[in-house]
Design goal:
By secondary structure, the protein is an all-alpha fold. It is built from 8 helices and no strands. It is globular. It starts with 6 loop residues before the first helix and ends with a helix.
């Protein structure tokens, strides 16, 4: 992130993250990733089917999704996760059946449009759940922050870092799996 943002920009982001509202939003995000969150989300989705949120609340949540580019972020994570899994699986194939990393990357990118409709359906319930304790006024405050140029730079930098970390981990994990397979074959005398 240091390579993509100035010290001043990073300071402004840290000021927001360390503000009471920034800390509150960070806790909501962390809570949505807690081990109990998937079960709570399922229950919440049932609740909102029985008692739907107001049209105002839905509009605000859609603005949050748009301002934060939630669809793009979740799709990038899904594609990169597929990249990791495919790399690991491919590393266990015989050498003549293995594909290059660029081929695996191209396949993962081609699958992105197939994932988009499913992910899109999950965004509104996810964000409704994540921000359920914020008032409409607080959601508007979050939207203003999400649309600010400093937030865009921060999330772009963070997303680039996540992508690089996922690619790096997939390559290292794939290499480690290939090494294990090579050692197994060597110990069995099948090389």
């Amino acid at each position: 992130m240091e390579a993509q943002m100035s010290q001043e920009e990073m300071g402004r982001i840290l000021d927001w993250l360390n503000s009471p509202f920034g800390k509150k939003c960070t806790q909501l995000f962390k809570g949505s990733l807690a081990p109990k969150a998937p079960a709570e989300l399922q229950g919440y989705m049932t609740d909102i089917q029985n008692t739907p949120p107001s049209s105002t609340r839905l509009k605000l949540i859609q603005e949050v999704a748009s301002a934060t580019k939630t669809l793009d972020i979740i799709l990038d994570i899904a594609v990169n996760t597929q990249l990791v899994v495919t790399t690991v699986i491919t590393a266990n194939f015989p050498a003549e059946q293995q594909r290059s990393f660029s081929e695996i990357l191209d396949e993962a990118d081609k699958n992105r449009p197939l994932l988009e409709p499913r992910v899109h359906l999950q965004i509104t319930p996810l964000l409704l759940y994540m921000f359920r304790s914020l008032s409409d006024a607080e959601l508007e405050q979050y939207i203003r922050f999400a649309r600010s140029s400093i937030r865009v730079q921060y999330y772009t930098s963070m997303l680039n870092w996540i992508k690089l970390a996922l690619m790096d981990s997939s390559m290292r994990f794939g290499a480690a799996m290939a090494d294990l397979e090579w050692k197994r074959k060597q110990s069995e005398g099948t090389l």
